[in-house]
Amino acid sequence: WNREIWKSLRLRQGSNALFFPTPNALAPLSFARFMNRRKVTFVDMSEISVSTLIKLSAQMRLTNVTVKLASTNGKIPVADSSFDVAYSDWGLSYFASVTGKASDAETITKELVRVLKSGGTIGAIEENGAPVMFPCPPDIQSIRTKVDSPRADKMIMGRRLFSLFSGAGVKKISLKGYSSFLTGQEDQRMGEELSR
Are the beta carbons of 62 and 38 closer than 8 angstroms? Predict the structure, then answer.
C-alpha cells in the first residue's frame, strides 16, 4: 500500500523528493527504488539511522540517494525551495501527539513547507485512530478499551496534522484513509465494529 500512496504524490520525471524521517530503513530504500533514478534525499534526526542509510544505499548502489542529518528539533539542512515533493513517514505524529513536543511539530511542518518548491506536494502517512482487531473476538472486546485508551490521542491525529499544515500556510489539504486488510464485503461489518 505504500506504493499506492507514493503514486498519489504526482511524481514527474525530474521530481526531486525529500523523505523524512527514516526510522525504518526498508521504507526509504523501497522509496528510492520506486523513484527510479529520480533524486531523493533522506533526512533523519538519528545518527544511527543516517549512517545505516548511507551504508545500505551504497551497498544497493542507489545512486539517486543523498542522506542528511537533521537537528533534534527537526531543522532540515537544505536550502529553501529544494524539493518537488516532501514526504513524512510516521514522523509528524511523534511530535504532534499529546506526549510529544508540539512546538517541534510546528517547526517540522514549517520546515517541510520551507524546503518545498512553489506548487509542490507534501505527503504524510500517519496513524489516525487506535488499531482495531477485525473481527474482534468477544474475549478480546472486554480488554480492548483498556489497550486503546492510552492511544486515544491518535483518534484526532488527522485534525492535528490538518491544523499544522494550514497553520504553516498550505492551501490545498487533502486527507485520505487507507487500510491494508479490508475487502469490499467487510466494509459494513467493519463499520459496525468501529461503532461498538
Answer: no
Q: Are 73 and 100 in contact (CB under 8 A)?
A: no
Side-chain-side CA neighbours of 150 within 13 Å: the count stands at: 4
Determine which helix (DSSP H) or strand (DSSP E) holds 44, and give its type and residue range.
strand 40-44
Is residue 91 exposed (0-12), middle (13-18) or buried (19+ Cβ within 10 Å)? buried
In angstroms, the CA 11 to CA 1 distance is 17
Q: How many helices (H) and strands (E) does the chain have?
A: 8, 5
Contacts by 192-195 with C-beta closer than 8 Å and gap 24+? 193/132, 193/134, 193/135, 193/136, 194/132
Burial class (CB in 10 A: 0-12, 13-18, 19+), 100: middle
- Residue-wise pLDDT for 94-145, tens only, equals 666 544 566 778 888 899 999 999 999 998 887 666 555 556 666 766 666 5
Nearest Cα residue to 12 out of 85, 97, 111: 85
Reference 86, options 40, 44, 27, 33; nearest CA is: 40
132-177 pLDDT, tens per residue? Answer: 555 666 676 666 656 555 555 555 677 788 888 898 988 888 877 6
- Cell output for 93: 505524529
Identify the DSSP state of 71: P
